[in-house]
Here is the input.
Amino acid sequence: MKKFITMLLFGFFLAMMFSFQSFAQEEEEDIIELYPYNQLACLEATPACTELQVGSAHWTWMYHGHRYHVVRGGVRYVKDFVDADADGFISPLEIGAALTYNAFGALTINDTDETVVLSTQSGRADITSVVHRIYVYFDEDGVLQMFEDQVHNYYIFNEGDETDPDWRLATQTEIDAYIAAEEGEKPVTTRNSPIRMALDDTHTRGYVLEPLTWIQWSNADVVVAEEPDVEKWSTIIPGNPNFVTIPAGWSTFSFSTFDRGTQNPLTTAYLKTLPFAMIDEEVDPMVIEYTHQPAVFDGLVALDDDLVTPGIQIVIDYQADFDLPATVTAAWINMFDEDGKIQNQSEYLDYTVTISQDDVDLETIEFNHDGTAYVASGPVTSIDTGVFGAGYVATFAVTTPKGDVTERFADIVVGVMPPTFSGVQTRYVLENTYVDLLEDITADDGYGNDLTHSIIVTTPAGFNPYNVQAGTYEIGLSFTHNVFIAGDEAIVTVHEEEVPFNMELHYNKPVAVSDSLGVFKVWDDVSIFKTVATGWGNVIVVVAADGTMKESYSRFDWFYTTEDGTITGDLDHFTAWMAALELEEGEFVVAAHGAAQATRLRVANLAFGDPISVQLGTLDFDYDIVTETSYMLVVDDVTPPLLLVVNNNFTIHTGQFTNVNQAILSNVVAFDLNDGENVAVYVANNGGLSLTTPGAYTVVVMAEDLAGNNTSATFTVTVVQAPHIPTDQEIQDMIDAAVEDAVADLMDEIEALREELTPVDDERGCLGIFTVSTPRYSSAILPILGLMTLIGIVVFKRRF
Here is the structure.
């Protein structure tokens, strides 16, 4: 049972802890960050900032749900203030360095044991370079003790009388009544004014308040020019209210132009809430924090031998001695001493340099600061300067007492200073001109020797520098610098007499000693020497590592000499000696044939222990370094496009177009030599063209290419009345009317004909009715027949 209760309590504890952590996390997430320009990028000084990259002082203060980030150079420490004239005040000149960005807020921290008073001759403008019009004062416990705002208005109410006022923040009812009252009838007990407000535990409501004159620090009811006693300029501050008093342990924040108004509305709105937060018991105390920063290396740039290549490039001359200088420093800002007091002290830190090659660490050298300078734990031993082109990486690393690590890297290369170009950059020229492609461009070998004359220029196909055309071209540049480093001569020294030998022919070669007369041959690979043929007259010497004769065998007289003396051997003894011969590190075999050099090696001239040494040479170094780069040549298009008017007497009918611009643009064609048909064509002046009103209109058309070049064309648009084109119905109605008229005429003709017919001859019978008395009746027959045909066609169309 006890176990069960214990588990329940443990679970309850975990739940409470989780709830507390969630609440704390939620509280932190609810914090509103106040950045310069309301942009984090401006605080971090990154390119994303659309305003000034001000950077951070790494101090913040959090209060009333907001965290304000102080900009670089915006923090002052009272410990640094010096009352040089001992007048009891700190003048602007005694404060020290001016604010870096005086248009932003400033933080002054007094963690000393003394109250400090900042004096001013210009209403505090000289304290902060420009006037900061809002001040807030927090005590050592983070309680907001006083608020001053000489630029914004707050509604306040007087509970006292005119001679003994007692101002407080107005209630909403009092504010509404003041706003509703007509001008001239506003209640005298209420004002809308800048204020100074301070906590006061002797007052029944816990604070006192006074109205301020706009953009001044004096009471609004005091005429400063008429009141010489500064003690009467404020009902809250004893002494001159223009001065800034910061008690021991307090911190003061002042706010400038970019903390209020349109530059940063978020901060402005926050500042206006502070008088109300000041008397709100639910608001937590202010918390001020400093974020420790990683250490910074200085002096690395001075090691850079190649300013063209990004990063730090250390170039070691081929076969030269090299060591890292102790000129690089690493320092950090130690903000607090052991008692937690601000010291803001820059301190040097020990650091290390690790030399690596191909991601393999070769050695680490410690650089320790002894209080005066850095001392290396040892020299660099892992870099072989005899390998031309060998590359290494030096990693400089330092860790602060807070555990922040800073690493910087430098590339180390063995060779020569890289040849470089100077003056290579993007160029802009006009089209149809000559361009000197090497204008202001030079080249040197890395040691200041001019090689501009050897630059080779490459251009795109078809590019003509004597008449450049619009466009963007990549211009290639290159030059070759020959590096020749003479090798060291190979020498055999016998009794201080130096005799050169050819390493390419006579060093570790499986060639018979007798092959060459009058030269020394040298081996330090005994396995190769054992394959070499020897003969009569050869003299062979083993050279000890200390530069003395260790053994010798002469095939001229078979004398074999060692530290034990000289004996006379034979071919069998010599063969056995040669087969058993071994060389220690640093030992050589030197052999010669012929009187010129072999004689030097005979025992009569070179006894055991006599000086003989071998210096191996190095080959000549002969290498061409090709340096290449390029730049973009931008040839500006300055030629306007072509704009052709199709018809200078452009005539349209009313109703032919529905859009004025469409009508005008139908009479032009545009083309650009560089952009082709990619030309913007628009109507610059439509001349009041009306598509329904006949008349002559003068219009202007513009054409603009992608480079902004433009041209215009002016022509006349004549609008004429369009002829009426009848509709099908109108045509049908005309046909119907014509038919009706024709039928009516026909009927009249028939009637007239009937009346004028010749009387019928009874003897002729029925045929007599077609006998006409006059010819005119005969001529009427054809029109009648035609009209009857037309009527038939109309009837047919209607039916079918």
Remarks:
- Confidence is low (pLDDT under 50) at residues 1-26, 763-774.
- DSSP finds 15 helices and 44 strands in the chain.
